[in-house]
Predict the structure.
Amino acid sequence: MSALLKYELRKTRAMKLIFLGVTAVAEVVFLVSLFLRNNEGNTDNIIGTSALILMLIAIGGIILIGIQSIFTLHRDMNTKQGYMLYMTPRNSYQILGSKMLENGLSLALAGGFFFLLGLLDLTLLFSRLGELERLWGFFMEFLHMFNAEIELDTAQVLSLIFELLTSWLAVVSIAFFADIVSSALLNGKKANGVVTFIFFILLTILLNVIQNLLRKSGICTTITSTLIMQSIVALCYSIGMYFIAAAVMDKYLSV
Amino acid sequence: MITSKNLTKKFGTKVAVDSVSLTLEPGHIYAMLGPNGSGKTTWMKMAAALMKPTSGEILFNGNPVGVESRKQIAYMSTEPYFYSWMSIKDVGRYYQDFFMDFSPEKYESLLRKMELEPSMKTRALSSGMMAKLKIAVTMARNARIYLLDEPFNGIDLLARDEIRACILQEAAADNILVLSSHLVEEMEAISDQAIFIKNGKLVEVRDLEEMRTEEQISMADRYRAIYGHAEVE
């Protein structure tokens, strides 16, 4: 499967390089404006804008990694380009597995990268702007007034990021499954697009229902454990989607 | 050996391949003939395990075609199918990564013969160059079966000569070559068997030499008789 994974990563390389380039530019602007800042805060606007841009790139990048994977799978099933993949002596489980793995790896790497970058930037920001740390303290006290559990410690932040990434991976897996059903079973049928979309929405709702039921069941008592439980559910759901989708692909897909 | 048993493929109400039963033996070059929409490409795609039949089956050495048969069946589609980001060299690397029977040396030699520059991007190739690349990378495999869909489509006479030479060079006693084309005279020069398909149905499989000696007719004559004069290009 390593050869398949290699080419799946290659297919999405261009977009990742563009994102990396844009991130590098925004980061340089952020760092330069931070170090050129004087006591009057002459570069505060630039610092704020570049920090906001970096945040948007992080969120947008992670969303786009998933969307690009869905488009790549769609192209591989519905254009002549798909011959490159399906004429190889690899089965549907390996083909789809490499796509899921590429998506999971890309999300994990992008998530880790932006988390570390954010941590570094926040540390630099606090060290340069002492008053910001005081503001952060006020913000945390404000949060405690509503929920005593919120600490925003490393464990909570990491489990939140993990939960967001695994949930997004589950949504992408559902989209994979819906697209495979559309291409393999509903191809050429009337209202294919509408049926596929409804199918996608229903499966996404089902995931949320399962997560909500488990959350309300009282199994998890802390925010961190709840987030981890939701991540595990999302991962199991993704694996389930993978097996069903690969089976459909194996039995019905013609390219 | 590849055997198609009552093979049928339907697209909605349209029957593209209609209960086709035939057996192709090693040591032959088969010309698969028929007008557009007669089912040649669909049959080839099913033989290459790219398309699932609606009913019937297709067997390679007694087993249904699938992942295992893809190791020994080399398929060349009539349409370009390489990833647009690939260079000619990347295409070779890709085949090397997936097919044990692919020979990089043979690929390089074929590229030289066909005057293709390895650094060129596939998206920048003309249709003639693309046709040569498809042939070079497919024939660089030491496959048991070569399925070549319209290998002479849209290319000039000189490129056609190169492709013909390349195909003939690979013909051996232990492999099967199946070529589809509208260029009947061209096909007659390189094949020894003809498969006539009409409206998805198999009309007949003929030995060309036998046809010539016993009935004193050429493949083109037979084609005219089956499909009518208007169909011959």
In short: The mean pLDDT of chain A is 89. The interface with chain B takes residues 3, 6-7, 10-11, 14, 80-84, 86-91, 188, 251-255 of chain A (CB under 8 Å). The radius of gyration of chain A is 22 Å.
